[in-house]
Design a protein that fits this description.
The chain has 78 residues and is an alpha+beta fold. The protein has a five-stranded mixed sheet. The protein has a two-stranded antiparallel sheet with strand order 3-6. The mean pLDDT is 94.
Length: 78
């Protein structure tokens, strides 16, 4: 299994801070998530980190067993 980690408001949308998923191409993994969550994760302002490294090409992400993919929402300041 691989793990998706949702930070900030994305954890609220997901209903939990993390979720176990079957490994595979990111597009396939996201297609199996609830629609509202998948849309939130695909927002162009959401960054991703695979095993602690920022992802520059999300379309190329292939999750392997044991991987952790974190979704980082945009930060608003005030």
């Amino acid at each position: 299994m691989a793990k998706l980690v949702f930070l900030g408001r994305l954890a609220d949308v997901a209903g939990a801070p993390e979720r176990e998923v079957e490994p595979g191409p990111l597009a396939e993994v996201l297609s199996l998530l609830p629609g509202e969550l998948a849309v939130a994760l695909l927002d162009e302002r959401v960054r991703m980190a695979l095993n602690g490294e920022l992802v520059s090409e999300p379309e190329a992400v292939m999750l392997e067993a044991g991987d952790e993919l974190a979704f980082l929402p945009p930060v608003s300041g005030g």
